[in-house]
Amino acid sequence: MAMKIRLARGGSNKRPFYSIVASDSRMPRDGRFIEKLGTYNPLLPKDSEDRVKMDIDRVKHWLSNGAQPTDRVARFLEAAGVTEKKTRANMKKAQPGKKAQARAEEKAAKAAAASEAAEGSAEA
What we know:
Blueprint: E1 3-12, E2 15-24, E3 35-40, E4 52-54, H1 56-64, E5 68-69, H2 71-80, H3 98-123
Parallel strand pairs: 1-5
Antiparallel strand pairs: 1-2, 2-3, 3-4
């Protein structure tokens, strides 16, 4: 049985509240779980200690039994000092595409050439 430590969503529309649970990976996100390990409230400020609450002993138990944390839960565990920090793939989604980068370089080159021409005529 493939075990996961993941978030199960609760709360109403636009007011999310998550439970950190240990469940079989084949079960639905909000479906059957084996044990509730903690809570996560994303509406609280990031420095609030009530934002993420976990039973660290039970989390360590499930990790030792082979449960795999999801990405978000792994970040919580890293912040709590339970697991060591992993290197993640830095997806470059925020960067523009190749054509847009080429257009930006051309525009910058034209602007630099225009500013040099303006400086040259001002000195004469």
